[in-house]
Amino acid sequence: MSNPMALQGIKVLDLSRVLAGPWSTQILADLGADVVKVENAAGDDTRIWGPPFLTDGDGQKTDAAYFACTNRNKRSIVLDFTTPEGVETVKALARKADILVENFKAGGLKKYGLDYASLSAENPGLIYCSITGFGQDGPYAHRPGYDFLIQGMGGLMSITGQPDGAPGAEPMKVGVAVADLFTGMYATTAILAALNHRNTTGEGQQIDVSLLDTQIAMLANQASNWLNGQIVPQRMGNNHPNVIPYRVYPVSDGFLIIACGNSSQFARLVAALGAPEMAEDPRFATNEARADNRDAVDGAITDLIADKTRDDVITILEKANVPCGPINTIPDVFADPHVQHRQAEVAMTRTDGAQILATAYPPKLSKTPASYRIAPPVLGGDQQDVLADWLD
């Protein structure tokens, strides 16, 4: 008999849409929670965020691939919050829920009686997670928040992109919605912390998660460089502000990454490339010295590998145990034998016949691994089953 899943028996009412909230609830779902996604008649915005689109068993276009990336293991029902019947059904579901996740604007659900104060009065153990752009209070609380805006306002774009004076220099967003995704993960860890607290005390609580707070936290060492050293981080292209050499280098057939995190790795790097004396040079002997002489380090390494192919350099450096690697396209990633061994790709079939490929839940739990039970749902496709399961 297989072990129960980590969150088996936990009921999650998902009133969120787009990415941050659905990313959180998909994690909970992957770990075994029963997640019910409540949508309006038009469905989650991302159902139409294509191309590309899924096709059903008859070859007809259905939901956007974007929707599929963050809504597996959920069941979908359609309810209209603007009607008394819809509101009452949500309230009834909330009375049965362990967790509720929503990403309406701050205070947006209060007029329906679906705010934390109203719902917790009838379900004191409810864990109510509110995800917004700017939080439940403060001067910006009323503003809508999208990932792109938050990457700009939260400082990320000021340190991403080519430096001033270089070709193509301008503030640059990251190529995936990292503020949304990190917010979803922070929301999930907070939910699990609240769940443990409830298991101890019986008390639920409200969780206030904002994209801006999350993005600021994710500045990590860059924030610390400013807060503790009054160093204003700048756009540095592919250079690292603190570690050298740690960047993209050109080779005869393209580019590769070399990432030395300490001086012993640097010594192995230059020895493998035929210049062991560089490790003894006072300009390069420590990371601080290399930071002071960044251009000289990078120039020397570039000269040493310029006539070599990417794969030749990787082979040389891997033998010397120096961190390095290629810059893969997305197809390259999923063709990589190690990625395939780690089973990073998951195949699912939806009730309408749509064949869906997705990325797997990354952590490998030895006793309660994630599972992939339900393909991203058809809009409203689970209405009767959910009402029967949750509300008898």
From TrEMBL:
TM region(s), chain numbering: none
GO-annotated molecular function: CoA-transferase activity
InterPro entries: CoA-transferase_III_domain, CoA-Trfase_fam_III, CoA-Trfase_III_dom3_sf, CoA-Trfase_III_dom_1_sf
UniProt keywords, alphabetically: Transferase
Organism: Thalassovita litoralis
Protein name, UniProt field: Crotonobetainyl-CoA:carnitine CoA-transferase CaiB
